[in-house]
Write a structure and sequence with these properties.
218 residues; Rossmann fold; 4 helices; 26% helix; globular; disordered C terminus; phosphatase activity; His_PPase_superfam; His_Pase_superF_clade-1
Amino acid sequence: MVPTTVHLLRHGEVHNPAGVLYGRLPGYRLSARGEAMARMVADHLAGSGDEPRHDVTLVVASPLERAQQTAAPLAEAFDLEVATDVRLIEAENHFQGRTFGVGDGSLRHPEHWPHLVNPFRPSWGEPYREQADRMLSAVDSARVRARGHEAVLVSHQLPVWMARCAAEGRRLWHDPRRRQCSLASLTSFRFEDDVLVGIRYSEPAASLLPGAATVSGA
């Protein structure tokens, strides 16, 4: 059996003072804390203190800026280039670029209401099944490329959670508040040959999480 691990890394905190759902919009960069989170994950995987050095041979990121920034210190720590895979991109969302709420947010405008009629698909954006399929396809490609070693794929909260739910045979529709996918967290798929044998969740940057902005749902 050849063991391979593919880590799904959610990007770090983003500078988003307006609190909008930024989705796939360009120009949303990591905050100072987000940059620190990215460095902390890189140090963790590269082996700092009592931590062992991981055998990372492949770093791939979503094309969005915040994912590329999160991948950069990790690639540097392992002397690798950051590859880009569009399959890791954030989920498409009708409410992108808007605030989401009843007060002064999108929910008070009737023209948006038809996008809320089906939470199971969901009707406001990219179907959950499509997200899961593209993410698992990216995981499989990384498993082949990093065979016998470890790969890190930098993506976004919802696509990572969809990949995990699908791999574990869970239903894909869910309460967003119950996602186990904090900023800069790792969801690690462990394979023996081409067989998935386990999924492990960890938070290397947990010490930076209190007070971190997560309003974007990205």
